[in-house]
Amino acid sequence: MFDLLIRNAALPDGRVGVDIGIRSGRIAALEPALAAEAGEVIDAGGQLVAPPFVDPHFHMDATLSLGRPRMNVSGTLLEGIALWGELRPTLTREAIVERALAYCDLAVSKGLLAVRSHVDVSDPRLVTVEALLEVRERVAPYLDLQLVAFPQDGYLRSPEAASALERALDMGVDVVGGIPHFERTMEAGRASVEVLCRIAAERGLRVDMHCDETDDPLSRHVETLAAETVRHGLQGRVAGSHLTSMHSMDNYYVSKLLPLMAEAEMAAIPNPLINMMLQGRHDSYPKRRGLTRVPELLAAGVPVALGQDCVLDPWYAMGTGDMLDVAHMAVHATQMGSGEDKRRLFAAVTDTPARVLGLEGYGLEVGCHADMVLLQARDPAEAIRLRPNRLKVIRRGRVIAETAPERTRLALEGRPGAVDPAAYAPPAAS
Predict the structure, then answer these.
(1) Ranges for the Amidohydrolase domain (predicted)?
(2) How much is the pTM?
Protein backbone atom coordinates (compact mmCIF):
# COMPACT_ATOMS: atom_id res chain seq x y z
CA MET A 1 0.00 0.00 0.00
CA PHE A 2 1.46 3.36 -1.08
CA ASP A 3 0.43 6.85 -0.11
CA LEU A 4 0.68 7.93 -3.75
CA LEU A 5 1.12 5.90 -6.93
CA ILE A 6 2.04 7.43 -10.27
CA ARG A 7 1.36 5.09 -13.16
CA ASN A 8 2.72 4.94 -16.70
CA ALA A 9 5.41 7.60 -16.43
CA ALA A 10 8.23 8.37 -18.84
CA LEU A 11 11.52 9.21 -17.10
CA PRO A 12 14.31 11.54 -18.26
CA ASP A 13 16.72 8.62 -18.72
CA GLY A 14 14.48 7.12 -21.41
CA ARG A 15 12.58 4.55 -19.38
CA VAL A 16 8.88 4.43 -20.22
CA GLY A 17 5.82 2.77 -18.70
CA VAL A 18 7.23 3.16 -15.20
CA ASP A 19 5.14 3.21 -12.01
CA ILE A 20 6.37 5.22 -9.02
CA GLY A 21 5.25 4.16 -5.57
CA ILE A 22 5.58 6.74 -2.80
CA ARG A 23 5.43 6.12 0.92
CA SER A 24 6.23 8.45 3.85
CA GLY A 25 7.54 11.17 1.57
CA ARG A 26 10.07 9.00 -0.28
CA ILE A 27 10.13 6.88 -3.41
CA ALA A 28 9.51 3.31 -2.26
CA ALA A 29 9.24 1.55 -5.62
CA LEU A 30 10.08 2.34 -9.23
CA GLU A 31 9.21 -0.33 -11.80
CA PRO A 32 6.72 -1.17 -14.54
CA ALA A 33 3.20 -2.32 -13.64
CA LEU A 34 3.43 -2.21 -9.85
CA ALA A 35 0.86 -4.59 -8.36
CA ALA A 36 -0.17 -2.32 -5.52
CA GLU A 37 -2.83 -0.01 -4.20
CA ALA A 38 -2.49 3.57 -3.02
CA GLY A 39 -4.38 6.27 -1.23
CA GLU A 40 -4.07 8.39 -4.37
CA VAL A 41 -3.30 7.36 -7.95
CA ILE A 42 -2.11 9.66 -10.74
CA ASP A 43 -2.10 8.43 -14.33
CA ALA A 44 0.88 10.08 -16.06
CA GLY A 45 -0.43 8.90 -19.43
CA GLY A 46 3.06 8.21 -20.77
CA GLN A 47 4.20 11.75 -20.13
CA LEU A 48 7.44 12.88 -18.54
CA VAL A 49 7.97 12.73 -14.78
CA ALA A 50 11.17 14.55 -13.85
CA PRO A 51 12.89 15.48 -10.62
CA PRO A 52 12.13 19.09 -9.68
CA PHE A 53 13.92 21.93 -11.40
CA VAL A 54 16.88 23.50 -9.59
CA ASP A 55 18.09 27.07 -10.09
CA PRO A 56 21.78 27.32 -9.06
CA HIS A 57 22.06 31.08 -9.53
CA PHE A 58 19.47 33.70 -8.55
CA HIS A 59 19.16 37.06 -6.77
CA MET A 60 16.07 36.77 -4.60
CA ASP A 61 16.76 39.96 -2.66
CA ALA A 62 16.31 41.94 -5.90
CA THR A 63 13.58 39.95 -7.62
CA LEU A 64 10.32 41.70 -8.59
CA SER A 65 11.88 45.14 -7.94
CA LEU A 66 11.79 46.23 -11.59
CA GLY A 67 11.39 49.99 -11.98
CA ARG A 68 12.62 50.89 -8.51
CA PRO A 69 13.92 53.55 -8.39
CA ARG A 70 13.67 53.67 -12.23
CA MET A 71 14.24 51.54 -15.31
CA ASN A 72 17.63 50.46 -16.61
CA VAL A 73 17.74 52.62 -19.76
CA SER A 74 21.07 51.38 -21.14
CA GLY A 75 20.31 47.74 -20.37
CA THR A 76 23.85 47.23 -19.11
CA LEU A 77 25.21 45.30 -16.16
CA LEU A 78 26.85 48.40 -14.73
CA GLU A 79 23.67 50.51 -14.80
CA GLY A 80 21.85 47.64 -13.12
CA ILE A 81 24.46 47.61 -10.35
CA ALA A 82 24.14 51.39 -10.02
CA LEU A 83 20.34 51.18 -9.77
CA TRP A 84 20.59 48.45 -7.13
CA GLY A 85 23.02 50.67 -5.22
CA GLU A 86 20.38 53.44 -5.17
CA LEU A 87 17.60 51.07 -4.12
CA ARG A 88 19.58 49.24 -1.45
CA PRO A 89 19.51 51.94 1.30
CA THR A 90 15.71 52.07 1.09
CA LEU A 91 15.17 48.33 1.43
CA THR A 92 13.20 46.97 4.37
CA ARG A 93 13.12 43.44 5.67
CA GLU A 94 9.36 43.29 5.20
CA ALA A 95 9.47 44.35 1.55
CA ILE A 96 12.22 41.87 0.66
CA VAL A 97 10.36 39.04 2.41
CA GLU A 98 7.13 39.89 0.59
CA ARG A 99 8.77 39.93 -2.84
CA ALA A 100 10.80 36.79 -2.19
CA LEU A 101 7.80 34.80 -0.97
CA ALA A 102 5.82 35.90 -4.01
CA TYR A 103 8.64 34.70 -6.25
CA CYS A 104 8.77 31.36 -4.44
CA ASP A 105 5.05 30.93 -5.17
CA LEU A 106 5.81 31.41 -8.86
CA ALA A 107 8.77 29.04 -8.65
CA VAL A 108 6.65 26.26 -7.14
CA SER A 109 4.07 26.68 -9.92
CA LYS A 110 6.88 25.99 -12.41
CA GLY A 111 8.16 22.92 -10.58
CA LEU A 112 11.22 24.82 -9.33
CA LEU A 113 11.78 23.47 -5.81
CA ALA A 114 15.42 24.39 -5.09
CA VAL A 115 17.15 27.75 -5.53
CA ARG A 116 20.62 29.06 -4.72
CA SER A 117 20.28 32.81 -4.17
CA HIS A 118 23.11 35.29 -3.88
CA VAL A 119 22.44 37.80 -1.09
CA ASP A 120 24.07 41.22 -1.26
CA VAL A 121 26.15 41.89 1.88
CA SER A 122 27.48 45.29 0.79
CA ASP A 123 25.08 47.14 3.09
CA PRO A 124 26.36 46.62 6.66
CA ARG A 125 22.76 46.65 7.94
CA LEU A 126 22.46 43.16 6.39
CA VAL A 127 18.72 43.64 6.03
CA THR A 128 18.92 41.47 2.92
CA VAL A 129 20.44 38.63 4.91
CA GLU A 130 17.90 38.91 7.72
CA ALA A 131 15.06 38.87 5.21
CA LEU A 132 16.23 35.87 3.21
CA LEU A 133 17.09 33.85 6.30
CA GLU A 134 13.46 34.36 7.31
CA VAL A 135 12.30 33.36 3.82
CA ARG A 136 14.53 30.27 3.88
CA GLU A 137 12.83 29.11 7.07
CA ARG A 138 9.31 29.90 5.86
CA VAL A 139 9.63 28.13 2.49
CA ALA A 140 11.53 25.09 3.82
CA PRO A 141 8.45 22.80 3.74
CA TYR A 142 8.17 23.24 -0.03
CA LEU A 143 11.39 24.77 -1.42
CA ASP A 144 15.09 24.35 -0.64
CA LEU A 145 16.69 27.81 -0.50
CA GLN A 146 20.47 28.01 -0.30
CA LEU A 147 22.06 31.42 0.35
CA VAL A 148 25.37 32.87 -0.86
CA ALA A 149 27.08 35.79 0.91
CA PHE A 150 27.64 38.07 -2.09
CA PRO A 151 29.66 41.31 -1.79
CA GLN A 152 28.02 43.03 -4.79
CA ASP A 153 30.25 46.13 -4.55
CA GLY A 154 33.44 44.09 -4.28
CA TYR A 155 34.93 42.30 -1.27
CA LEU A 156 38.00 44.58 -1.18
CA ARG A 157 36.49 47.56 -3.01
CA SER A 158 33.67 48.10 -0.50
CA PRO A 159 35.07 49.26 2.88
CA GLU A 160 32.69 47.26 5.08
CA ALA A 161 32.17 44.20 2.87
CA ALA A 162 34.73 41.96 4.58
CA SER A 163 33.23 42.29 8.06
CA ALA A 164 29.68 42.14 6.69
CA LEU A 165 30.42 38.92 4.82
CA GLU A 166 31.83 37.29 7.95
CA ARG A 167 28.77 38.37 9.94
CA ALA A 168 26.45 37.00 7.24
CA LEU A 169 28.19 33.63 7.45
CA ASP A 170 27.92 33.72 11.24
CA MET A 171 24.17 34.34 10.85
CA GLY A 172 23.80 31.12 8.85
CA VAL A 173 24.38 31.95 5.20
CA ASP A 174 25.46 28.75 3.44
CA VAL A 175 28.01 29.66 0.74
CA VAL A 176 30.91 32.10 0.25
CA GLY A 177 30.51 34.39 -2.77
CA GLY A 178 32.61 37.00 -4.53
CA ILE A 179 32.90 39.24 -7.59
CA PRO A 180 36.61 39.57 -8.43
CA HIS A 181 36.14 41.30 -11.79
CA PHE A 182 34.39 44.21 -10.03
CA GLU A 183 37.37 44.98 -7.79
CA ARG A 184 39.45 48.07 -8.64
CA THR A 185 42.28 46.14 -10.29
CA MET A 186 43.02 42.69 -11.62
CA GLU A 187 45.43 42.22 -8.73
CA ALA A 188 42.74 43.14 -6.21
CA GLY A 189 40.41 40.67 -7.91
CA ARG A 190 43.01 37.91 -7.57
CA ALA A 191 43.56 38.80 -3.92
CA SER A 192 39.82 38.67 -3.20
CA VAL A 193 39.59 35.15 -4.65
CA GLU A 194 42.46 33.99 -2.45
CA VAL A 195 40.93 35.42 0.74
CA LEU A 196 37.41 34.18 0.03
CA CYS A 197 38.57 30.63 -0.74
CA ARG A 198 40.57 30.61 2.49
CA ILE A 199 37.47 31.70 4.44
CA ALA A 200 35.43 28.92 2.84
CA ALA A 201 38.09 26.32 3.62
CA GLU A 202 38.35 27.42 7.25
CA ARG A 203 34.57 27.30 7.68
CA GLY A 204 34.01 24.13 5.66
CA LEU A 205 31.70 25.91 3.21
CA ARG A 206 31.05 25.88 -0.51
CA VAL A 207 32.14 28.69 -2.86
CA ASP A 208 30.17 30.30 -5.68
CA MET A 209 31.72 33.39 -7.27
CA HIS A 210 30.47 35.72 -9.95
CA CYS A 211 33.56 35.31 -12.08
CA ASP A 212 34.63 37.22 -15.19
CA GLU A 213 31.14 38.52 -16.03
CA THR A 214 32.61 40.75 -18.71
CA ASP A 215 33.50 40.77 -22.41
CA ASP A 216 37.16 41.39 -21.55
CA PRO A 217 39.16 38.30 -22.64
CA LEU A 218 41.90 39.28 -20.18
CA SER A 219 39.57 38.90 -17.19
CA ARG A 220 40.89 35.53 -16.06
CA HIS A 221 39.93 35.22 -12.41
CA VAL A 222 38.50 31.78 -13.11
CA GLU A 223 42.09 30.60 -13.43
CA THR A 224 42.86 31.87 -9.93
CA LEU A 225 39.62 30.36 -8.61
CA ALA A 226 40.59 26.94 -9.98
CA ALA A 227 44.09 27.19 -8.53
CA GLU A 228 42.82 28.29 -5.10
CA THR A 229 40.27 25.49 -5.14
CA VAL A 230 43.07 22.94 -5.40
CA ARG A 231 45.30 24.81 -2.96
CA HIS A 232 42.65 24.77 -0.23
CA GLY A 233 41.30 21.29 -0.94
CA LEU A 234 37.91 22.60 -2.03
CA GLN A 235 37.49 20.23 -4.97
CA GLY A 236 33.84 19.50 -5.69
CA ARG A 237 32.65 22.47 -3.61
CA VAL A 238 33.38 25.43 -5.91
CA ALA A 239 31.41 26.99 -8.75
CA GLY A 240 32.29 29.81 -11.11
CA SER A 241 29.18 31.70 -12.21
CA HIS A 242 28.75 33.50 -15.54
CA LEU A 243 32.32 33.05 -16.93
CA THR A 244 31.31 35.23 -19.89
CA SER A 245 34.86 36.41 -20.64
CA MET A 246 35.57 32.86 -21.82
CA HIS A 247 33.35 33.65 -24.80
CA SER A 248 36.01 36.15 -25.93
CA MET A 249 39.21 34.35 -24.88
CA ASP A 250 41.56 32.94 -27.50
CA ASN A 251 41.33 29.22 -28.08
CA TYR A 252 44.87 28.41 -26.96
CA TYR A 253 44.34 29.93 -23.52
CA VAL A 254 41.00 28.14 -23.13
CA SER A 255 42.69 24.86 -24.08
CA LYS A 256 44.86 25.29 -20.96
CA LEU A 257 42.07 26.64 -18.76
CA LEU A 258 39.54 23.84 -19.21
CA PRO A 259 41.80 21.05 -17.91
CA LEU A 260 42.67 23.23 -14.91
CA MET A 261 38.96 23.64 -14.10
CA ALA A 262 38.37 19.93 -14.53
CA GLU A 263 41.30 19.11 -12.24
CA ALA A 264 39.81 21.42 -9.61
CA GLU A 265 36.44 19.64 -9.97
CA MET A 266 34.85 23.05 -10.39
CA ALA A 267 31.33 23.57 -11.69
CA ALA A 268 30.37 26.23 -14.22
CA ILE A 269 27.09 28.15 -13.87
CA PRO A 270 26.24 30.11 -17.00
CA ASN A 271 23.06 32.20 -17.04
CA PRO A 272 21.94 32.15 -20.68
CA LEU A 273 19.07 34.64 -20.49
CA ILE A 274 21.07 37.32 -18.69
CA ASN A 275 24.36 36.66 -20.45
CA MET A 276 22.70 37.03 -23.85
CA MET A 277 20.98 40.24 -22.75
CA LEU A 278 23.82 42.05 -20.96
CA GLN A 279 26.98 41.08 -22.82
CA GLY A 280 28.29 42.58 -26.03
CA ARG A 281 26.88 46.00 -25.20
CA HIS A 282 30.03 47.76 -26.38
CA ASP A 283 30.03 45.97 -29.74
CA SER A 284 28.46 47.13 -32.96
CA TYR A 285 28.66 44.21 -35.42
CA PRO A 286 29.71 41.47 -35.25
CA LYS A 287 28.18 41.51 -31.75
CA ARG A 288 29.39 39.07 -29.12
CA ARG A 289 26.64 37.42 -27.09
CA GLY A 290 28.71 36.54 -24.05
CA LEU A 291 27.44 33.09 -23.12
CA THR A 292 30.39 30.98 -22.00
CA ARG A 293 31.65 27.88 -23.86
CA VAL A 294 29.08 25.37 -22.68
CA PRO A 295 29.82 22.52 -25.14
CA GLU A 296 33.56 22.80 -24.54
CA LEU A 297 33.11 22.81 -20.76
CA LEU A 298 30.95 19.69 -20.95
CA ALA A 299 33.44 17.97 -23.24
CA ALA A 300 36.21 18.72 -20.74
CA GLY A 301 34.23 17.07 -17.95
CA VAL A 302 33.28 20.30 -16.17
CA PRO A 303 29.74 20.09 -14.72
CA VAL A 304 27.52 22.79 -16.24
CA ALA A 305 24.43 23.99 -14.35
CA LEU A 306 22.26 26.70 -15.90
CA GLY A 307 20.89 29.58 -13.80
CA GLN A 308 17.93 31.94 -14.11
CA ASP A 309 19.81 34.80 -12.38
CA CYS A 310 17.12 37.50 -12.49
CA VAL A 311 13.38 38.01 -12.84
CA LEU A 312 11.95 41.53 -13.13
CA ASP A 313 14.80 43.38 -11.44
CA PRO A 314 17.28 46.19 -12.30
CA TRP A 315 19.26 43.86 -14.57
CA TYR A 316 16.52 42.01 -16.42
CA ALA A 317 13.02 43.25 -17.26
CA MET A 318 11.84 39.77 -18.19
CA GLY A 319 11.83 36.28 -16.69
CA THR A 320 9.16 33.78 -15.67
CA GLY A 321 10.78 31.58 -13.04
CA ASP A 322 10.73 28.73 -15.57
CA MET A 323 14.02 26.87 -15.83
CA LEU A 324 12.89 25.44 -19.18
CA ASP A 325 13.05 29.00 -20.56
CA VAL A 326 16.71 28.96 -19.51
CA ALA A 327 17.38 25.61 -21.19
CA HIS A 328 15.47 26.73 -24.30
CA MET A 329 17.71 29.78 -24.66
CA ALA A 330 20.77 27.63 -24.08
CA VAL A 331 19.82 25.31 -26.96
CA HIS A 332 19.76 28.27 -29.33
CA ALA A 333 22.73 30.21 -27.99
CA THR A 334 25.03 27.18 -27.84
CA GLN A 335 23.67 25.53 -31.01
CA MET A 336 23.23 22.33 -28.99
CA GLY A 337 20.33 21.02 -31.02
CA SER A 338 20.62 17.23 -31.07
CA GLY A 339 18.51 14.96 -28.91
CA GLU A 340 21.52 14.10 -26.75
CA ASP A 341 22.42 17.79 -26.44
CA LYS A 342 18.95 18.59 -25.17
CA ARG A 343 19.08 15.76 -22.66
CA ARG A 344 22.34 17.25 -21.31
CA LEU A 345 20.79 20.71 -21.09
CA PHE A 346 17.74 19.26 -19.34
CA ALA A 347 20.15 17.75 -16.81
CA ALA A 348 21.72 21.21 -16.50
CA VAL A 349 18.48 22.51 -14.92
CA THR A 350 17.79 19.39 -12.83
CA ASP A 351 20.40 16.79 -11.80
CA THR A 352 23.58 18.82 -12.29
CA PRO A 353 22.58 21.87 -10.22
CA ALA A 354 21.24 19.51 -7.55
CA ARG A 355 24.78 18.09 -7.28
CA VAL A 356 26.30 21.58 -7.28
CA LEU A 357 24.06 22.57 -4.36
CA GLY A 358 24.71 19.26 -2.59
CA LEU A 359 21.00 18.45 -2.28
CA GLU A 360 20.38 15.33 -0.21
CA GLY A 361 17.90 12.74 -1.46
CA TYR A 362 17.39 14.34 -4.87
CA GLY A 363 16.46 12.23 -7.88
CA LEU A 364 14.17 9.54 -9.23
CA GLU A 365 15.45 6.42 -7.54
CA VAL A 366 14.19 4.28 -4.67
CA GLY A 367 14.99 6.02 -1.39
CA CYS A 368 15.05 9.55 -2.83
CA HIS A 369 12.68 12.23 -1.63
CA ALA A 370 9.35 12.03 -3.45
CA ASP A 371 9.87 15.40 -5.16
CA MET A 372 8.94 15.44 -8.85
CA VAL A 373 7.14 17.19 -11.66
CA LEU A 374 4.71 15.75 -14.21
CA LEU A 375 5.06 17.68 -17.47
CA GLN A 376 2.82 17.82 -20.52
CA ALA A 377 5.60 16.47 -22.72
CA ARG A 378 7.01 13.10 -23.70
CA ASP A 379 10.74 13.51 -23.01
CA PRO A 380 13.40 16.10 -22.08
CA ALA A 381 13.84 17.31 -25.67
CA GLU A 382 10.11 17.93 -26.00
CA ALA A 383 10.00 19.58 -22.55
CA ILE A 384 12.63 22.10 -23.65
CA ARG A 385 10.90 22.69 -26.98
CA LEU A 386 7.44 23.21 -25.50
CA ARG A 387 8.15 24.57 -22.01
CA PRO A 388 4.88 22.81 -21.17
CA ASN A 389 2.38 23.01 -18.36
CA ARG A 390 3.36 21.43 -15.05
CA LEU A 391 0.43 19.09 -14.61
CA LYS A 392 1.50 18.09 -11.08
CA VAL A 393 4.22 19.39 -8.78
CA ILE A 394 4.92 16.98 -5.94
CA ARG A 395 6.91 17.67 -2.78
CA ARG A 396 7.60 14.86 -0.31
CA GLY A 397 4.81 12.82 -1.86
CA ARG A 398 2.16 15.55 -1.75
CA VAL A 399 0.77 17.46 -4.73
CA ILE A 400 1.48 21.13 -3.98
CA ALA A 401 0.67 22.65 -7.37
CA GLU A 402 -1.18 21.57 -10.49
CA THR A 403 -2.07 23.05 -13.85
CA ALA A 404 -4.67 21.80 -16.31
CA PRO A 405 -3.34 20.39 -19.59
CA GLU A 406 -3.02 22.95 -22.35
CA ARG A 407 -5.76 22.46 -24.95
CA THR A 408 -6.97 24.92 -27.56
CA ARG A 409 -10.45 24.45 -28.97
CA LEU A 410 -10.77 24.97 -32.71
CA ALA A 411 -13.79 25.88 -34.83
CA LEU A 412 -12.42 25.03 -38.27
CA GLU A 413 -14.44 23.16 -40.84
CA GLY A 414 -12.99 19.76 -41.57
CA ARG A 415 -10.26 20.05 -38.95
CA PRO A 416 -9.91 18.56 -35.42
CA GLY A 417 -11.89 20.15 -32.63
CA ALA A 418 -8.87 20.78 -30.41
CA VAL A 419 -5.09 21.14 -30.46
CA ASP A 420 -2.78 19.53 -27.89
CA PRO A 421 0.75 20.96 -28.34
CA ALA A 422 2.29 17.80 -26.88
CA ALA A 423 0.71 15.73 -29.66
CA TYR A 424 3.14 17.19 -32.19
CA ALA A 425 6.12 15.28 -30.84
CA PRO A 426 8.07 13.50 -33.58
CA PRO A 427 7.86 9.69 -33.75
CA ALA A 428 11.28 9.38 -32.08
CA ALA A 429 13.53 11.73 -30.20
CA SER A 430 15.50 13.95 -32.57
Answers:
(1) 40-400
(2) 0.97
